[in-house]
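Title: Comparing notes on inverse folding

I've been comparing how different people in this forum approach sequence design from structure. To keep things fair, I'm posting one structure and asking everyone to reply with a full sequence. Here's the target:
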């Protein structure tokens, strides 16, 4: 029996993954425990949970694999500065302070952290020394993309901001081996190009890119030619070079230069300032350019390898609109995207590299995939939840599944918003029916209600549908599974509504409140939706809940958005869920089989006991 622990840390989205004999057992992100979004610190709580959940200590771990090689990253930092000096001096000095304090001596820092954890698990034993290995950043992405996939052999495309040097890389995965084909190196980066527009439009880099993607359908791609003629040179095979005079991410604290601002005629938008048609048109333009590059890269990769399957990973692979276009192009016969495509998922890739590459173990292929629906995190029993609710004096009912699902179907039909806390927590950025807020997609007011009263976020943001897997083609132009909400598809034409002449003439955000289909709450302004197909195999309770709603209403779809408010990570524990429930205008909370009504709960200002921490065993 072999345990391997994969780690990503110290940049953003720290995480830990535990693998036993090649099987993914546990994968968790540090932000869920620390409640600090995109937490980059050493994932001490994540590692602790991995060990405790399997009742083992660090002596049981054969290898600890870190997801990249820090000295190569340091080399890139030095070479980049030498290539741009004396510009970028202040940012270089700031980076050096961090590197000299922590990152340059990362191996020693990791050993120190693991020795500290070892003392916690094994009292009095001070002899522990972790068996540390280091993978490369894009190798970890490629491993996370291919090894859990259902393919015996596939092409792999990894696209992100930057690893050590690589920003885009291509691989072939076969059985238990990865073969590197080519890469595009920093500072030429599709991920950082998209992030530059994210920054320019006033959103936070490394977390606001999906907002830019959601904003794009409100605009027209009128700046595509300016981007392609000035900012980026795109070759026919999809390779590209950026005109670095328009950017500052490689030599300063900002993403864009004054030259970038001049070409678009305005300074970067300040956060919380009004989003105008200009920003919507910019979003539409960079989204179209991104899609063009991805499709060209995929075509050249298919021609180069002759392979019929494609796997994707890296932060750019979370662009589900581009993924949907890629699927529609039918360049490859089949597509599999790692649901935790960002750096958190690289902890999983690193662990699997340890098993397959270094230990040379045979790969077992699951025909569905090996991610277990991404339900790889913390879970809590009914008895634990009941003890917690009793301890904080929260009124609740305990109801068996059949009656619970019938009640919830009725509540959804009545327009109630429900917090749904079910089973093991998801790994990755998407809520997939374990930590979700759910509602009725037929309700015209539901999108604005959930955005403004529940999520406290921008009104333009669309919501995703969860639909029974076997019913997907009845409501969307889609004939494949999409279990991880990583594909956008058009809503069926027969469900869409014809716009009046006046409605067709509306621009931008004016389109928001026009009902575009019989599922208005999940239909975006371009008649698309980010689809999650739900299988009884991977999430039986969520499947049965949606089935109960279908039986009551004839609609096999519900709204699914992540169980959190703006700026907060997805909830982890029952305590997190209750706190979020009490601070928003959700009507109902479901904690496994415990049903709570907002109207019955004590007022927050009169009740402090509920804020207590929930202990993780």
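Reply #1:
Here's my take.
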């Amino acid at each position: 029996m072999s345990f391997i622990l994969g780690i990503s840390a110290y940049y953003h989205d720290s995480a830990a993954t535990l693998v036993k004999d090649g099987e993914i057992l546990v994968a968790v992100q540090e932000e869920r425990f620390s409640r600090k979004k995109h937490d980059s610190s050493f994932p001490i709580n994540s590692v602790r949970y991995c060990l405790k959940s399997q009742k083992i200590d660090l002596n049981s771990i054969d290898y600890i694999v870190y997801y990249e090689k820090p000295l190569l990253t340091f080399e890139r930092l030095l070479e980049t500065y030498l290539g741009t000096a004396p510009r970028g001096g202040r940012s270089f000095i700031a980076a050096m302070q961090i590197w000299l304090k922590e990152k340059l001596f990362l191996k020693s820092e990791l050993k120190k952290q693991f020795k500290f954890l070892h003392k916690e698990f094994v009292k009095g034993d001070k002899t522990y020394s972790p068996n540390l290995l280091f993978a490369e950043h894009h190798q970890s992405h490629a491993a996370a993309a291919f090894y859990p996939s259902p393919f015996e052999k596939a092409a792999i495309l990894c696209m992100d901001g930057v690893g050590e040097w690589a920003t885009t890389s291509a691989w072939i995965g076969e059985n238990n081996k990865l073969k590197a084909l080519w890469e595009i190196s920093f500072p030429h980066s599709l991920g950082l190009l998209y992030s530059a527009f994210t920054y320019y439009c006033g959103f936070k880099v490394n977390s606001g890119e999906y907002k830019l993607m959601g904003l794009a359908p409100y605009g027209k791609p009128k700046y595509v030619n300016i981007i392609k003629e000035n900012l980026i040179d795109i070759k026919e095979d999809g390779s590209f070079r950026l005109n670095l005079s328009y950017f500052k991410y490689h030599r300063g604290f900002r993403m864009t230069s004054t030259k970038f601002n001049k070409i678009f005629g305005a300074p970067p938008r300040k956060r919380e300032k009004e989003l105008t048609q200009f920003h919507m048109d910019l979003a539409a333009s960079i989204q179209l350019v991104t899609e063009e590059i991805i499709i060209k890269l995929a075509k050249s990769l298919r021609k180069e390898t002759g392979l019929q399957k494609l796997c994707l990973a890296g932060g750019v692979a979370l662009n589900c609109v581009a993924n949907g276009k890629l699927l529609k192009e039918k360049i490859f016969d089949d597509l599999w995207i790692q649901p935790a495509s960002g750096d958190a998922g690289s902890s999983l890739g690193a662990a699997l590299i340890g098993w397959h590459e270094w230990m040379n173990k045979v790969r077992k292929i699951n025909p569905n995939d090996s991610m277990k629906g991404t339900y790889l995190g913390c879970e809590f029993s009914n008895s634990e939840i009941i003890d917690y609710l009793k301890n904080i004096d929260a009124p609740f009912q305990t109801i068996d599944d059949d009656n619970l699902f019938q009640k919830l179907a009725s509540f959804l039909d009545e327009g109630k918003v429900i917090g749904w806390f079910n089973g093991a927590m998801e790994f990755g950025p998407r809520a997939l029916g374990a930590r979700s807020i759910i509602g009725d997609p037929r309700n015209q007011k539901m999108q604005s209600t959930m955005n403004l009263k529940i999520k406290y976020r921008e009104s333009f943001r669309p919501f995703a549908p969860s639909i029974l897997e076997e019913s997907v083609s009845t409501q969307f132009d889609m004939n494949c599974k999409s279990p991880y909400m990583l594909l956008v598809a058009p809503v069926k034409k027969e469900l869409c509504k014809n716009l009046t002449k006046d409605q067709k003439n509306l621009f931008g955000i004016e389109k928001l409140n026009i009902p575009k289909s019989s599922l208005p709450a999940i239909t975006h302004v371009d008649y698309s939706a980010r689809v999650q197909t739900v299988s009884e195999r991977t999430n039986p309770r969520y499947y049965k809940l949606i089935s109960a709603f279908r039986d009551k209403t004839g609609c096999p779809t519900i709204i699914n958005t992540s169980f959190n408010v703006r700026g907060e990570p997805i909830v982890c524990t029952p305590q997190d869920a209750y706190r979020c429930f009490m601070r928003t205008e959700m009507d109902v909370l479901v904690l496994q089989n415990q049903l709570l009504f907002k109207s019955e709960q004590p007022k927050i200002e009169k009740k402090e006991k509920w804020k207590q921490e929930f202990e993780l065993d």
